[in-house]
Amino acid sequence: MPSPLERVQAAPVLATVRRLEQRIAARFPGRGLTKVVGELAGLVETVDSSTATARGRRSWLRPLSRFGIVAVLVVTGTVMVLAIRSAIADAPDDGLAWIPLLESSVNDLVFAALAIWFLYSVPERLQRASLLELLHRLRSLAHIVDMHQLTKDPERLRSEFVPTGASVPMDLDTDQLEHYLDYCSELLSLVGKTAALCAEASRDPVVLDTVSTVETLTVSLERKIWQKIAVLNHHRETPGAT
């Protein structure tokens, strides 16, 4: 049995998301970012309940699928034995007369292999659709977080910055902007952790590949935010820059 430290668990992730929601609401009440983190908390709960349901479903589907595999093997083996006995009893003199038997045997083996592969993958395939839908929502949420920080450009806090008529008003000072960007970075990290919860529930290669895609996306977006924070700190350390 794996150690709790070897798996990403939903309860600590949810607790961290709820704590971040309280921090954002305390510092930026009424901001849309609070709604985003609330949506993420709901997704963590959905992933947790979905994976628990999937585990319960697999607990009875896996033995059933293994029984089906054994049944396919028994039926295929019986058919092959009867066919061989019949062929030996008839024993055609012409070698070409064996071709239909060989062709039928190959077809039976191919169909049996396909049936075994289908039965073996049924438990994982049944939960693929629900997990992919959750991962799609997480990917969309990551882009929404990115949209929230997109116009939060530290360059606009410089004293020499000249806005245009199309410039978005900056209603945050230097300290507030740093906190806002830091919250966005934490949100993206937690989106990645929520995606990792889906990987804990499945070994389906399609699901695992999608989880990896979401995690790569969040890391890439976090990198952009930390570049902004670095620029912001540079301006703060430069006398007269802000």
Plain-language structure description:
Keywords: Membrane, Transmembrane, Transmembrane helix. The chain crosses the membrane at residues 64-84, 96-120. This protein is mostly helical and 242 residues long. The protein has one domain (10-159, 170-237). Helices cover 79% and strands 0% of the residues. The chain has helices at residues 10-27, 32-90, 99-150, 174-201, 205-237. Helix 1 (10-27) runs antiparallel to helix 2 (32-90), helix 2 (32-90) runs antiparallel to helix 3 (99-150) and helix 2 (32-90) packs parallel to helix 4. It is elongated. The two termini are 56 Å apart. The relative contact order is 0.13.
Write the layout of secondary structure elements.
Blueprint: H1 10-27, H2 32-90, H3 99-150, H4 174-201, H5 205-237
Helix pairs in contact: 1-2, 1-4, 2-3, 2-4, 3-4, 3-5, 4-5
Mean pLDDT, all residues: 80
**Span between termini:** 56 Å
Largest sheet: none
Helix content: over 70%
Transmembrane segments: 64-84, 96-120
Keywords: Membrane, Transmembrane, Transmembrane helix
Task: Please give a handful of descriptors for the protein shown.
79% helix, single chain, mainly alpha, 0% strand, 242 residues, elongated, 5 helices
